[in-house]
Amino acid sequence: MPAPHSFLSRLTFVSLALSAIAPAADKLPNIVLIYADDIGYGDIGSYGAKRISTPNIDKIAAAGIRHTNGHSAAATCTPSRYSLMTGRYAWRQQGTNILPGDANLIIRPGSLTLPSLLAKAGYETGVVGKWHLGLGDSKIDWNKEIKPGPLEIGFGSAFIIPATGDRVPTVFVEDHRVRNLDPADPLEVSYQENFPGEPTGKDNPELLRVRHSHGHNQSIHGGIGRIGYQRGGRAARWTDENIADDITAKAVSFIEGRKDKPFFLFFATHDAHVPRTPNPRFVGKTPLGPRGDAIAEFDWSVGEIANTLDRLGLADNTLVIISSDNGPVLDDGYQDGAPEKNGDHRPGGPWRGGKTSAFEAATRVPFIVRWPARVKPGVSGALVSQIDLTASLASLTGQALAADDAPDSFNQLATLLGESKKDRDYLVSQGSAASITRDGWKYIEPVKGQKPTKIAASTNTETGRDNVPQLYHLTEDPGETTNAAAEHPGRVAELVKLLEEVRSR
Ligand code: NG6
Ligand code: CA
């Protein structure tokens, strides 16, 4: 097996890149990475959605490469983002599953990350939107400086939702501080117990405007129950309906403020994660209720970014990447009508499963790459993964990676840009069970022990877990309908061995 991660091949490549491929510093493209939350392959018009229209995204897709075999590293947010930022599989590190809102930072300050790499290459870097990678290194005092965080792992500026919209605290953190915090009304957060006298969704359902279906019955903010408890910080709390407006405005002003150097913007939207509270401008834009309307809102955000790049004359030399952290889910804990109004919409497109699953829809997500100055429009079915952005953008910007930097990230630049059809050698995905795909065959590892749950009762998602090995021939059976493990023991053995090899690195 080739070892594209090895130090030697990296050095060779980098020296080549420096002499022949890497553009001169003043020609380096700006990079805007737009990262949606829980938006599935089939939720976007250019990927087949009929009942949601996404004209802004489709326009970018038509002018760039629309990848049809593009993946997040995991089936949920935190591990996908961890891998995106570090080029390292999250399962290599304990404590990288879905984090509570008071978790500490899970990326080591000073380590090589996608933003620190680009900062070294001369980029101005910024993150706007959902973080969910933890903050601080001990119990967080939300009223003081909060660090380490994004600024300590390579971002020059940060305007973030600390965890998720459904987790406390429901405030933005700007650089090291909670935005708009009134010192007279300190913000307190607990994931253990409620603060005396504070209402909860569980005890005060009369205060709710959206009912929970599972979880989400702790502190109430804006008539919506959340995960976790908070008190105070009233002036700092966001308005759910304005989150997309707030973060889009920040993203736009980040771009406007960057004139002299290339910039890297990581714009991580909250749409279409729960609670789905699209601004009234988008309510009713789709027949699918809040979930579809939140995707319409996402498309608007994308359009605002695109218009800004056009207006400033930056579009031609800006690499825009649009993707999502994991596949779709309808009922993720609130009774917002998503399952009832879904009709024949297929949020995962042709793929089986959804968010958290081991089946394909968990990680096969929209993946669009546009860079007018270099990329010729097209559609690519080559296997690509978000985990490869670090090594690929290192190559693009002529940066060397040491052997233990971004160890799982391969340089797939040519494929990402549509200049090659070369698949990633293999793909490891972290869903409700681990899977590995190579040459169109996908192996899902069995879960040991008692009978596995086939459908998650809460979200009604097919988990893809089984206590026997599963093998699917994705090329011939894209819907993962027929377990071919018994027929192809050799293929199973090969993939088991490869998975072991990747794990032991
Ligand atoms: C789950 C939440 C779900 C969502 C998810 C994280 C419950 C019952 N479910 O635990 O609502 O918040 O975590 O989603 O609490 S992610 O996209 O950030 O990974
Ligand atoms: Ca997510």
UniProtKB/TrEMBL annotation:
The keyword Hydrolase applies. Belongs to the sulfatase family. It holds the Pfam family Sulfatase. One of its GO terms (molecular function) is hydrolase activity. Residues 338-347 have a biased composition (Basic and acidic residues). The keyword Signal applies. Residues 331-355 are annotated as: Disordered. Residues 29-398 form the Sulfatase N-terminal domain. Keywords: Hydrolase, Signal. CDD domains: ARS_like. It comes from Luteolibacter yonseiensis. This is Sulfatase-like hydrolase/transferase. Residues 1-24 form the signal peptide.
